[in-house]
Amino acid sequence: MKKVILYAVMAMITLVIIACSKKEDPVPIDNKIIGRWKCIGFGNIKTGKIKPIEPKDCEKCYAMVFKKDGNFEGHSCANLLVGQYQAYNKQFDFISVGGTEVGEMGDCRFFAEILRSINTYGIKDNKLFLYYSGNEYLIFDKH
Known about the structure:
globular, 2 helices, alpha+beta
């Protein structure tokens, strides 16, 4: 009888270990977001206004490349940005954001800081909208 109980307990422990160690399926990535995007401004839903991002004449500034594997890379003005993201069913999350930390100019500091606040997105007419508050968003052109 003790052996039966021992085997039953061992079987239950094995099942618990297997169940707990099962990896979750990754969240799928919306294929429309894959590619290179360049931020062109800050938008406000309430006012309908878009404030152009500064500096405008910097080719590498505000560029983001979203990869199919959930990684991204990009630039603010002076800094490289790298990390992981999820984008699916209008929900967006920068899971991790890292990179260099050199002094910024123009809107670059604000741009880098708000990436962690982005929670939803939309894509329309080759434009990507990353929403970071109820009324505010970054707008990107597809490149």
